[in-house]
Amino acid sequence: MAAISRKHHYLPEFYLKGFTGEDGKLAVFDIENNRLKTKRLTPSQIFFEYDRNTLEFDGVKDDFVEKMYSQLETIVGHAFKKIKEQKSFSYLDAQDMFRIILFAGSLYWRIPKTDNLIKSEFENSSPDELYFEIRNKITGEKAPEDFINIIKKNDAFIKSYRAIKPVLDYMHQFDVSKIEDWKVYYATINDKGERKELHLIGDNPIIFRNPSNTDIFHQEIIMPLSCGKTLYHTRGKDVKVVEPTARIDVDRILFLQSKKYVCGPDGSYLEKIAEHASLYKDISPQAAEFLRNRVFDVFYDNTN
């Protein structure tokens, strides 16, 4: 039997490459120990867990969930390649935007932050709400409720479901007519003609207007796609000119909501943002909420 993969990234390597320095490596700030790591790491060396997506059936291990993620990465990789190649503007056709949006949904349910959330949602929702059903392959009859309840507590089934959940949500909840509400913006050029690519990446990289709402397709979000590119879901609003200060605020929020690591191309910038973020954390929860609201001030209603 062929060996299965064990090193499973919850932030894909191709995604992390957009946040590396010229050496192809990342500066890493260790949040738990409150320090910048002395060694720069490659994308393959961070944001992974061994056997995170490994399943076991009757004593036999399988990594087909990891293969599912790999297939998705292949699909969205084309759009990220196009974004990387574009220097001064974003021109993505509808198919590319669909891929980026699907990737955002997948990433949210792939990170450790949502481990307990996916278990709770899975256990407390009906099969209809989860968009699946289990039937006897011979008779075609639906499985009894007690069997469903057992399955819903099975770790292998939960891991499988979390991999396909973004696709199911995308199919059942995403409004194709609202594609224009999703926008990719590039870092602004300063008065010296320089493009300051600042964005960082952390283990919880999607910023929600309302963190208690997990429906990524129906609320405003901000998500760094690379150091200089950002995905916005505006929900019908417009986006003001995004000044460097607004982008720095995004990095501060990323620090506040990450638990283990935050990375970027430049170590000194990482340390500065860590210091800024700690000030907001030390003041009060209201200070952090004020910062979140300020981050979304770049959205404005154009109907008035």
TrEMBL record:
InterPro entries: DUF4238
Name by which UniProt lists this protein: DUF4238 domain-containing protein
